[in-house]
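The material for today's practical consists of a large collection of protein records. There is nothing in a record beyond a sequence line and a structure line. As an example, a complete record with its sequence and its structure tokens follows:
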Amino acid sequence: MSSAPAETSADTGATAAGSDRPATLDTVLEVHGLTKQYGRLTAVDGVSFAVFAGETFGILGPNGAGKTTCLEMIEGLRVPDSGSIRLMGIDALAERRRVQEMIGVQLQSQALWLELTAEETLKTFQSLFRRRVRIDPLLERFSLTDKRRALVKHLSGGQKQRLSVATALVNDPQVVFLDEPTTGLDPQARHSFWDLIREMRQEGKTVIVTTHYMEEAEALCDRVAIMDLGRIISLDTPRALVDGLGSGSAIECEFAAAVDDHVLSALPGVRDVRREDGALLIFTIDVSATLDSLIKLGGGTGNLPKRLNVRSSTLEDVFISLTGRRLRD
């Protein structure tokens, strides 16, 4: 590669935050019919979606759903068996290196060299690109200034994860790919990462993040693609996906003896009944009426609920409704 120019730090216009849609609908990424097979296993099966400029786009699904394989093909790290990828108007398969200059990538596997310092790590990644940002502000942003000369092997798990995400920003990318960036972190560290991702969006960057934490997708993403068994099974804003259940609340309950699903489905307010992990999950638009009827039903038969838990419907409920199992499975 030719020698890189001096470090530059470009100003980027902030994008107005919106709960449902980004401020601009310019398409940054178009994926069509993306497929990847390993022998008899189809890891990614005809995946198609688009990502708009300035939005945070989430790919939500359990481990093994194909999220990482999908991202690695878009990033140019794996070659798809079929399909097309256009990134910022460029054919990403035909001009892989040109695209890689404009994107930032944080790998799920934390591709860090243990014997390098935090500063050396950033400079090593920086050397791969013609466009570069200054290291000092990057260390400060990720709370690593006092660890700049510490070896990676001596960093804590959270510090390594922050350094891993920082490597994705050394070239001031327009599009940032984050693959399970908060896996293994405690709740406090995870929420700190959420703030960093929100900052990227406020700077006008397009962020594409994979996760198996439904609360993470709900908190961060403008739109979410739910992925399972190599396919995207639903895609919309988090609110629209939850509203699509047709119920505002979920009642988790358990009875001593079996209760017929048809009986439960006929109760007032009930929109759907699912069985999961030996318990019942009842989706309802009228919690009071459904609970009252459940108690009466149990009282009339001597089969009172052993456990009742009422909560608002979530993206995990959407996944259960679509697949019949929880996201963690």
